[in-house]
Amino acid sequence: MAKAKNARVTIILESTDGTGYRYTTSKNKRNHPSRVEFKKYDPVSRKHVVFKETK
């Protein structure tokens, strides 16, 4: 029997504030096929900013 392909992939979220800070997380590529954006805390700029998925 063949194994099923994993739907979850590891992604990198980078700060849009220009600090270069990154988060690593995973997403289900079937539920979110496009790039995702989250509002998270950037400890370099010490505020919540939008983090975008990078390639």
What would you note in describing this structure?
With 55 residues, the protein is mostly beta strands. The protein contains no helices and four strands. A four-stranded antiparallel beta sheet has the order 2-1-4-3, with no helix packed on it. Strand 3 (37-42) and strand 4 (47-54) form a beta hairpin. The N and C termini lie far apart (33 Å). 7% of the residues are buried. The mean pLDDT is 94.
Mean pLDDT: 94
Low-confidence residue ranges: none
Radius of gyration: 14 Å
N-to-C SSE series?
EEEE
General form: elongated
Provide the structure class: mainly beta
Distance between the ends: 33 Å
Number of helices: 0
Count all strands and give the number: 4
Helix fraction bin: under 10%
User: DSSP strand (E) fraction?
Assistant: over 45%
Side by side, the strands of the main sheet go 2-1-4-3
Largest sheet: 4 strands, antiparallel
Quaternary status of these chains? single chain
Primary descriptors:
single chain; 55 residues; mainly beta; 0% helix; elongated
Topology:
Elements: E1 8-15, E2 22-28, E3 37-42, E4 47-54
Antiparallel strand pairs: 1-2, 1-4, 3-4
Summarize the structure.
Helix content is 0%, strand content 53%. It contains no helices and four strands.
